[in-house]
Amino acid sequence: MPDAPQPVFPKRIFSGIQPSGGLTLGNYLGALKRFVEAQDNGIETVYCIVDLHAITVWQEPAKLRHATRELAAGFIAAGIDPARSILFNQSQVPAHAELAWIFNCVARMGWLRRMTQFKDKAGKHAEEASVGLFAYPNLMAADILAYHATHVPVGEDQKQHLELTRDIAIKFNHDYGVNFFPVVEPVIEGAATRVMSLRDGTKKMSKSDPSDQSRINLTDDSDTIAQKFRKARTDPEPLPETLDGLAERPEARNLVNIYAALGDTTPEAVIAQFGGQGFGTFKPALADLAVAKLSPINAEMSRLMQDVAEIDRILGDGAERAHAIAEPVLRDTREIVGLIRSRR
Ligand code: TYM
């Protein structure tokens, strides 16, 4: 029998960021900046600080609390308006963990074994990795599907997890003979879907890289940002006259992409402006642009962090609104699965 047509789910955006360490330029360009654009386009937006994901690897409790609040400050400083978007931390809404358990029973071992991020993170020590780290993509599927979200803006590195989310929705719907969960669309767009390390253009810029020189942190001051771009690894050639000339030059390509994303322009336009010029000209221009864009965010984050009670209030309010959306979805899910709820 052909599958019944998908019901039309109203467009709703969901995305999340882990509060493990600080925000990097990769998080900002690949995710946060685009979250703000989605909010400003008038679409319903739900943004989550995924603290339950963070504890899949060891987190010092006091540091986790600080990182959660600092990330909330980062969202707001970057332009997320808690009145227009729902902004909250995951653990305040129990629906995430409950739905994740149900999805643990939908997803197959083989699906999770294929996840490259688990292999990268667990490395040679897979036997010592937490069970949570292995099951992490099921929690991510639950985050998204508890809101019947339809669109998920992320960086390139999350693509495989979103494919798994789609597979879970399809299998759940198929197994229970329903059209209940939407099959989500990954939204991986723009010039900076994969910002690379400043030390190695073949590696992703990451908060877990041992070298602080490899990344720009949103908490870096202007001098540090300028110094990191000045020292960024490049080759000795000037920038090419056409984009094709960047194909075999990962470090140069990365800096051009960063410039384009920060300046709300395209890599083509950056090459049209700087083609033929050396890094002695381009790097200072990039550093100036980055400082102009990032230092107001940095300053606003510090200001917001002066009042953590207000941040906690915002997260609590967001969690109430998130719960109001997720709880009816969970109620229907329990009903579909055959879990009795007779408690009053
Ligand atoms: P996380 O916390 O590692 O990263 C948050 C977001 O930043 C993007 N990103 C990058 N984009 C471009 N270049 C980079 N170098 C770079 N580094 C990070 C990530 O792609 C991501 O969009 N599993 C997720 C968090 C998560 C989530 C979700 C996301 C949990 N539940 C539900 C979407 C929907 C993660 O670890 O992201």
Q: If you had to describe this structure to a student in words, what would you say it looks like?
A:
By secondary structure, this protein is mostly helical. The chain folds into 2 domains: 12-188 and 307-337, HUPs (Rossmann fold), CATH 3.40.50.620; 212-303, Orthogonal Bundle (Tyrosyl-Transfer RNA Synthetase). The protein has helices at 25-40, 51-54, 61-78, 95-104, 109-113, 116-122, 131-145, 159-176, 222-231, 250-262, 267-274, 279-304, 308-337; strands at residues 12-17, 44-49, 86-89, 151-153, 185-187. The longest helix has 30 residues, at 308-337. The model has no long low-confidence stretch (mean pLDDT 95). The protein binds tryptophanyl-5'AMP. Tryptophanyl-5'AMP binds next to strand 1, helix 1 and helix 7.
Identify the notable features of this structure and list them briefly:
single chain, mainly alpha, Rossmann fold, Tyrosyl-Transfer RNA Synthetase, 2 domains, 3-stranded parallel sheet, 13 helices, 6% strand, globular, binds tryptophanyl-5'AMP
Topology:
Elements: E1 12-17, H1 25-40, E2 44-49, H2 51-54, H3 61-78, E3 86-89, H4 95-104, H5 109-113, H6 116-122, H7 131-145, E4 151-153, H8 159-176, E5 185-187, H9 222-231, H10 250-262, H11 267-274, H12 279-304, H13 308-337
Parallel strand pairs: 1-2, 2-3, 4-5
Helix pairs in contact: 3-12, 4-7, 4-13, 7-8, 9-12, 10-11, 10-12
The structure holds tryptophanyl-5'AMP (TYM).
Tryptophanyl-5'AMP binds at residues 14-18, 26-27, 30-31, 50, 53, 140, 143-144, 152, 154-155, 157-158, 161, 192-195, 204-205.
